[in-house]
Design goal:
The complex is a heterodimer of chains A (about 270) and B (about 270).
Chain A: H1 3-24, H2 31-51, E1 54-64, E2 72-82, E3 86-93, E4 96-102, E5 106-111, E6 116-121, H3 126-135, H4 151-155, E7 161-170, E8 173-181, E9 185-191, E10 200-205, E11 213-222, E12 240-241, E13 243-246
Parallel strand pairs in A: 6-12
Antiparallel strand pairs in A: 1-2, 1-11, 2-3, 3-4, 4-5, 5-6, 7-8, 8-9, 9-10, 10-11
Chain B: H1 2-8, H2 16-34, H3 47-62, H4 65-69, H5 72-75, E1 121-122, E2 129-130, E3 151-153, E4 158-159, H6 162-169, E5 184-185, E6 193-197, E7 200-205, E8 208-215, E9 218-224, E10 231-232, E11 240-244, E12 247-252, E13 255-260, E14 263-267
Parallel strand pairs in B: 4-5
Antiparallel strand pairs in B: 1-2, 5-9, 6-7, 7-8, 8-9, 10-14, 11-12, 12-13, 13-14
The chains are: A alpha+beta (about 270), B alpha+beta (about 270).
Chain lengths: ~270, ~270
C-alpha cells in the first residue's frame, strides 16, 4: 500500500469516527419535554413492577458520606418479594451478615455477626410494612421505593422537579437516566430497557449532615420459586433474642409549645 | 423498692438553689442537643422513607420540651428524707443527678398508631408500644416509654460511638458527665467488658451499662439502669460511701454497689 493511500485511509477512518460520535450525541430536551419523558418512563416502570407478584433481586448498596468519618459502607442484599405481604432478605457487608423475614404478621431480624435475633409486629400488607419499617423501626431501606404497589407514587411528589437526562451504560446495560429534585433528597434513577427493576438508583440526602448518598445497583430481576417457607424466619440454634426498639408515636400539640421554666413533666405515666 | 420510692418523690422541700441548678443543667442539656445531628444516624433510606424521616425531624425537635422539664422535679428536690431504717439520718435521696433525659426524642407524628386506639398503650411480649393520637405516651423516670420483654420504645439519642457521644454531649467541656439511660450507640465503648445479670449479658464501661437491642435493623447498644447482681471489679469515679438499710455501700450516681469478695455488686434497695 502506497503511503498516499495509507494516509487517505487514515483520514477516512478519522472522519468516520467523528461522524459516529456526532450521531451518538444525545440531544438535550427542553425541561417540559424532559419532564414528560421521565414521567412516562417512570410510570411504565411502576406499572410493570406492580404487575410482578413474586420476584427477587440482588443489589449492591454503597453508602457514601463525603468527608465523614464513616467513609463508604457497602452491602450486598438479596431480596425476595411476594405481594401482597411477604418479603425475605439477606445482607452481607461492612456491617456484618444479616437476614430478615416479613410474613404479613411480624418481622424477624437476625444478626449473624452478633448471633442475636429480634422480632416485632408488622402490618398485614407490604405497602404498610415498608412504611412501618421506616416509621416505627427506623430501618433504612434504600430499595424500598420499587417494592410499593405503586413505585411511581413512592418516588414522586407534587414538589418533585426533574425528568429524563440521557441514556447511560450501567455495567453492560443501556439505561435511561432520570434525575429529580425534592426538598429533602435529590435522586437519580437509571431505568432498564424492560422497564421493570431499575438498573441503578442514587439518593442524596440533602438535609443530613455531610450530604450522604446511597447508590443502589440492581442486578436484574429474577423469577424465583417460592413457598411459604421462604418467608418463614430461620433463626440458627444458639442465637440470643434481643429487644427490638421502636419509635414512640406521639401527636400532642402541647409538645410544640415552649416549655415553661419549671413546668412539671407533661402527663405521662410509667408503663412496666 | 427504694428507687421507686425515690422517683415517686417524697418532696419535703424544694430548694430554690436546687431548682436553679437543675434548670441550668436542663438548659445545658437542651443546648447540648442542638448540634447533635452530626453524631446521629443520618439519612440512608429510600426516597419515600426520607420524606417521612424529614417530616419527623421537626416533631423531634419540638419534643425537646420533655428534655427540659421532665428531669428536675423528681430527682433534685428530695432533701432531708430519712430512708435509713436504722435511723442514722443518712440522706441518700439527694442525688441531684440529671439522668432523665431524651424522652420523646425520636417520635413519629405521622403514624396515628397502627396497633392502638387513641390514647392507649399496648404492651405485650413482642414489645410494649406507646401509641396515641393525642399524646398518650407513657413517660418513665429514666426515659423509657413502655418496655416489654422483647421490645421497647426509643428513648434516647443514637450515636455512632461512645466517643461521638462524649463530644456531642459536652463531656469534654464538663457539661455532662454521665451518659443518659436510653442513649444508644452503634457499637459499645472500646473499653467495655461483658457482665452478666439474670442470665442476660450486658456491656459495662465507665459506670454505664449497655444492653444489645435491635434498632434501625442493626444491633445497637442501649444504656440501661444498672442490672441488679452484676459484679464489677473496679468502681467508677465519683463514688461516695454511705449506709443504706444498715448496709455499707458505695453510691455512684444513682447506682449502689456492695463490696463482695470479687468486686462490687450492684444492689437495689
Amino acid at each position: 500500500m502506497s503511503p498516499r493511500l495509507q494516509h487517505t485511509l487514515q483520514l477516512f477512518m478519522v472522519v468516520v469516527v467523528i461522524a459516529g460520535a456526532a450521531c451518538n450525541r444525545q440531544q438535550p430536551l427542553n425541561p417540559e419535554a424532559a419532564s414528560a419523558k421521565g414521567d412516562a418512563l417512570l410510570r411504565e416502570m411502576s406499572k410493570n413492577m406492580a404487575a410482578v407478584q413474586t420476584f427477587a433481586y440482588t443489589v449492591d448498596e454503597r453508602r457514601q458520606i463525603p468527608g465523614g468519618t464513616q467513609g463508604e459502607k457497602k452491602m450486598t442484599r438479596q431480596v425476595t418479594v411476594r405481594r401482597p405481604n411477604a418479603l425475605a432478605f439477606t445482607g452481607k457487608g461492612d456491617r456484618g451478615e444479616t437476614a430478615g423475614w416479613y410474613d404479613g404478621k411480624q418481622l424477624t431480624l437476625v444478626s449473624h455477626r452478633d448471633k442475636v435475633w429480634a422480632r416485632g409486629p408488622m402490618p398485614p400488607t407490604l405497602d404498610e410494612a415498608l412504611d412501618f419499617l421506616s416509621d416505627e423501626y427506623d430501618v433504612e431501606m434504600p430499595t424500598a421505593d420499587v417494592l410499593y404497589s405503586s413505585p411511581y407514587d413512592a418516588f414522586m411528589t407534587k414538589d418533585t422537579t426533574g425528568g429524563w437526562v440521557d441514556t447511560q451504560k450501567v455495567g453492560d446495560r443501556s439505561c435511561e437516566h432520570l434525575a429529580y429534585r425534592q426538598p429533602v433528597v435529590d435522586w437519580e434513577i437509571w431505568l432498564s430497557t424492560d422497564r421493570s427493576l431499575p438498573c441503578q438508583l442514587k439518593v442524596t440526602y440533602k438535609q443530613s449532615p455531610g450530604t450522604p448518598s446511597t447508590l443502589v445497583t440492581y442486578h436484574g430481576i429474577e423469577n424465583p420459586q417460592v413457598t411459604d417457607d421462604t418467608f418463614k424466619a430461620k433463626v440458627p440454634d444458639g442465637y440470643h433474642r434481643i429487644k427490638i426498639i421502636r419509635r414512640a408515636t406521639v401527636i400532642d400539640p402541647k409538645l410544640d409549645e415552649p416549655a415553661p421554666a419549671d413546668a412539671p413533666a407533661p402527663g405521662g405515666k410509667q408503663i412496666k | 423498692m427504694f428507687n421507686h420510692a425515690t422517683r415517686t418523690g417524697r418532696f419535703v422541700s424544694r430548694s430554690s438553689a436546687f431548682r436553679a441548678v437543675a434548670v441550668t443543667v436542663s438548659v445545658l442539656l437542651v443546648l447540648s442537643t442542638v448540634d447533635l445531628g452530626a453524631q446521629r444516624k443520618s439519612g440512608g433510606g429510600s426516597v419515600k422513607q426520607s420524606r417521612s424521616t424529614s417530616s419527623n425531624a421537626g416533631a423531634n425537635r419540638s419534643n425537646n420540651y420533655n428534655r427540659s422539664t421532665n428531669t428536675t422535679p423528681n430527682r433534685n428536690t428530695n432533701t432531708n428524707v430519712n430512708r435509713n431504717n436504722n435511723n442514722t439520718n443518712v440522706n441518700v435521696n439527694n442525688v441531684n443527678v440529671n439522668r432523665n433525659t431524651n424522652v420523646n426524642r425520636n417520635t413519629n407524628v405521622n403514624n396515628a398508631g397502627y396497633y392502638g386506639r387513641p390514647g392507649g398503650v399496648v404492651a405485650g411480649e413482642e414489645g410494649a408500644v406507646a401509641v396515641g393520637r393525642r399524646g398518650a405516651v407513657a413517660v418513665g423516670e429514666e426515659g423509657f416509654v413502655g418496655v416489654g420483654r422483647y421490645g421497647g420504645v426509643v428513648s434516647g439519642e443514637v450515636y455512632d460511638s461512645y466517643e461521638g457521644w462524649r463530644v456531642a454531649a459536652g463531656v469534654t467541656a464538663g457539661v455532662v458527665t454521665g451518659i443518659a439511660i436510653g442513649t444508644m450507640l452503634a457499637r459499645p465503648p472500646a473499653a467495655s467488658v461483658t457482665v452478666v445479670s439474670g442470665g442476660a449479658n450486658y456491656m459495662y464501661a465507665d459506670g454505664a451499662y449497655y444492653e444489645q437491642v435491635m434498632y434501625g435493623g442493626e444491633v445497637t447498644y442501649r444504656v440501661v439502669q444498672a442490672p441488679p447482681g452484676v459484679i464489677i471489679t473496679t468502681l467508677p469515679g465519683g463514688c461516695s460511701s454511705t449506709v443504706v438499710g444498715g448496709v455499707a455501700v458505695s453510691q455512684c450516681g444513682t447506682t449502689y454497689y456492695q463490696r463482695v469478695s470479687n468486686g462490687y455488686k450492684v444492689v437495689v434497695f
